[in-house]
Structure formats: structure tokens, C-alpha cells
Fold:
Amino acid sequence: MTRGEPMAKPFSRLAIVGLGLIGSSLARAAKKAGAADKVVAIDASADVRARVEALGIADEVTGDVASGVLNADFIILCVPVMANAAIAAAMAPNLARGAIVSDVGSVKGCVVKDVGPHLRPDIHFVPAHPVAGTEHSGPDAGFAELFVNRWAILTPPEGTDEAATQRVRSFWEAIGANVEVMTPEHHDLVLAITSHVPHLIAYNIVGTAADMEEVTQGEVIKFSAGGFRDFTRIAASDPTMWRDVFLTNKEAVLEMLGRFNEDLAALQRAIRWGDGEALFNLFTRTRAIRRSIIDMGQETAAPNFGRTPEPLK
Amino acid sequence: MTRGEPMAKPFSRLAIVGLGLIGSSLARAAKKAGAADKVVAIDASADVRARVEALGIADEVTGDVASGVLNADFIILCVPVMANAAIAAAMAPNLARGAIVSDVGSVKGCVVKDVGPHLRPDIHFVPAHPVAGTEHSGPDAGFAELFVNRWAILTPPEGTDEAATQRVRSFWEAIGANVEVMTPEHHDLVLAITSHVPHLIAYNIVGTAADMEEVTQGEVIKFSAGGFRDFTRIAASDPTMWRDVFLTNKEAVLEMLGRFNEDLAALQRAIRWGDGEALFNLFTRTRAIRRSIIDMGQETAAPNFGRTPEPLK
Structure:
């Protein structure tokens, strides 16, 4: 199925485990797009459950994963990746025959390893990762449009039922996403450079700036419009989720970080030796990449991300 | 004078040298706020002069800096910092008695060193740096509101006439900026961490991602919403301007980069050894910094910098 074709039969009962930013956005989007008849929200936190009830974004709300997945034909795990194994073990005995299990984790190798072994042969397992989000967390931060024109990457293990993969693809397309299929290994490498290392260096520069003695924190904050404030957005992302990403995608992150460090050492040397040409050449080359991202519809062309200037009185 | 008080007497003739993003924004802002009676635009590029004429943002337009500054009571150099010395030498003989010379460079130590010696004792020299901008360049990219609620840092050398500093402060306040005064040395250290090193690592990660073999450039672009695209904004800034920044603020940039690298090595080690607690602690601490920047009015609170999601059809 390609995008634009009519949606395949919706799922009759979608169980979402974990109603944070992504899970609660999925609940909203699935209802709005008619991609699921019923949405069951499962969350271990009473506070989160209360918010989900108040927001009215699910048909049923429960704290018990084992009973919550009963009769569901589609189950999506939306928790920090290291929490997947325990949830898979708890829900496995109660999964309906032929149900499809998926997730939204930012690391896919570990999900295949942690969840796969718990599932019976009649259960279809199609891991997924929507490359979308904001720096905010929790059920109140979610919104139905989060996945529109973003990419959802599916990483079905070898031998996965093709029809199950198609239904998951169709679900993501129904809520506005573009879908690509790749191996978990390749996914983890691609995301290490497009997402994980960028987060790591953003967290790092914000930490470095906070620890200065010669420059006060007040100065860092005041003069952040010089570039620093851009980094604070992704450095405000969910700490548990990101801890788990770095612990589970260690090899690819360390490999990509090694390249980043090599390149940075070369730049550092160019500065020390006053090699203006090397600097100018890099700075010219990088401009074109942003242009391509904007042309591909993955970024706004508005200056400053479209932050609106205040009026001049 | 503090903000909100009536504006001091406007300058009668403001000469702006270099009509890029900043210079052209200053021309627009000065006219709009009534901070100068006449604006003279001076630019060596015929293309830029033609655009400035077409945009109608200056009262006079010339390519000749020596004649352009005649009778101006306020001259602002808005060129890459390494171009300042030659311009200062060219204009110096024609400066009106008692004129105030300023600039907008991102590095202040070199401006004091490069421009100061060319100026006669009767000329007042008040270097300035508005911490504001976008990733776009050229006269078409400018707008009058660019400096509203941003900080302009003044670094008058010791012995500068207090009244001249006050007039420059009053000018920036009239066009919406907040003003702070500090030494050039402290400025260069503060900006190294809040602006120069952030730009350097943004340029670097974009370069690293562009050079991958295992991950195609198409994949980097497609999946850039995972964090990478944020970095491409400042990595799309003007190459000449930024080359000059790194060549002229070498010591402070290398010092801050050293700290960044130390901290990154510690993070790298935490990942290698699976120290989730160290990661979690840093990722929690950095969240608070963004909050402060938003509370100080230097950043939007809207998720994803306010990038608007497309509708879910």
C-alpha cells in the first residue's frame, strides 16, 4: 500500500502501554484518523491515568498491563526502551491469538532482543520508531498531529508476516506518517548520527555552560540567543528515555561519537593554526544540508525556526 | 538612562557600513524608531547596494566609505570582524569632529585592537555586539524587529567618554534592545561559550553527518527530525562572518572547547561503562536551564520552537 490509498481495515482494539508524549499522541491520532475503533490506555502511574481520563483521549484506562491487553489486536509499547522486557513478559500470556505487537522505541536492536523472545509464534512483532517528538513529556504534551509528514521506521525481524507489517504501515500512514522499512542494525546506526549523538552533544554543551566559573549562569541565560538556546531544546528532552537510548545503543553511539571527535579535533587544529580556508570550506558545505532538509519538508524555512520577533514599539 | 525613559536626541546622520542581515536590520530599525534622522548605507558590493536601493531602507547609498562617512555623527561597522581594520583606515581621515564610531562584531578584543588605533582622539569609540541574528544573510534577510528584547553588549575601552557610551546605549534601547556593558575580554569569554562553541559543534556535527559512508545523505536528511535538524540552523550561518569569529577569538574558543571536550569524554566513558546514573543526572540538570532561558524571555516556550505541525487529514 502506498500513501493516499484508502486505509486498510482499522484495528478494533488498540492497547497503548505508556501514555507519555508519544503514547498519548498516538491515542489522539488513532481516534482522530479512525485507525482504531477502541483505544485502551495502560499506564503504571496513577497520575498519568488520571490525566488521560481527564483529557478523554482513551476509551478505557487501566494500570494493569496483563488485563489491559486482553482482546487487543494491536499493542504498542510507548515506554523507555529498557522498560520493554518486563512489560512484554507481563502481557505475553494474555495476548489475543494473532495480535500484532509494536513499539516506538528510539533503539531497535535491543527491542528485538528484549521483546521478541517473550512472544508466542502466533503473535506478530513489528517494531517501529516514529522520528518525531518535542522537548515536552507526559500525556498533556501529546497532540494528534505529531506524526504528520514525519518518518516512521519499521524494523520487522526476518520472517515477520508480510500482512502484519502492511497493517502496521497502514496504521502509521493513516495518522499522517511516511513509512520506511530497514533492519534494526541499520536503524540504530542511522539514528545514532541523526538523533542520539546530536542529543548527547546538546546535553553536553548545556552541562559545560552550566558549570563555568568565569561566566555566570545568569550570563549564559541572558546571552543564549547567540546560539546556545537552540541546544537547550533537545537538552530538555526526557531524561529516562535518553538514558535508556545511550545504554542500549552504546556501540553505534560510541562509533559515531568517535567520528564527531575526530572531525572536531581537525577543526580545533584549524583554529589553533589560523587555517581560515578549512573553516570557510566546512561552513559553506554545511549550509547546503539545511537547504535539503527544508526542501524535503522536514524543517521550516522561516528564520529562527519561525520564532516570532516582538514588535518594535 | 534606563529603558522606558524618553529617547535622547536622535543621531542626525547614521552611516552603516555593510548592509547584510545586521546592517540592514539596523537601517530599518533606526528609521522606524526615529533613532536617526538620516541613514547612509555604505557597501562595497554593487549587488547589495542595488537591493538596498530597491528596498528603500536608506536615505543615501554609496560604495565609497571615505565619502560616505562625511558629516555622520554615528558610524556603525557591520562587516565580518576581520574587515574592520581596512574600513577604519579608509574612513578615519573623513570622520566628523566628535563623531561616535561603533560596530556589531561578535568578537570585541580584536575590534578594539583593529579599529581603535585608526581613530583620532576627538572620535568616540564604543564597540557593541547585539546578540541577535538569524541563519539568513544579506539585506533582504533583515527586519526592524531583530533586536527587540535581545541584549546588546557595549565594550567601551577605558577612558571612553561617558556621554558617548550613553548615546550608544540610548540608540540600542530605542530600537528595542537591552544593554549591558562589560570589558572586551569578558565579552569574548562569555560569547565563546554561549555562541562561538555552539556554532562550532553545530558546524562539526553537520559536517560529520555529511561525510558518512554507512548512512546516506538522503537518510540523514529524511530522519533529521530526531534532533539533527536543530543543529543545521546555526550551521547555515554566514561562513565569512564565522571564519573571522574563530580566527579572532582563538584563545577563548579553544579554552571553552577544551572544557566541552573534557565533559564529553566523561559522558563517553559513562556510556561505555553503562553508568546510567551519571547520564540521568546530567539530563535532569540541563532541563532546568531551558526553563530559565524561557522565563527570562530569551526563548519561546512553544514545543519545537513553535514549528507548526501540519494538520492530520
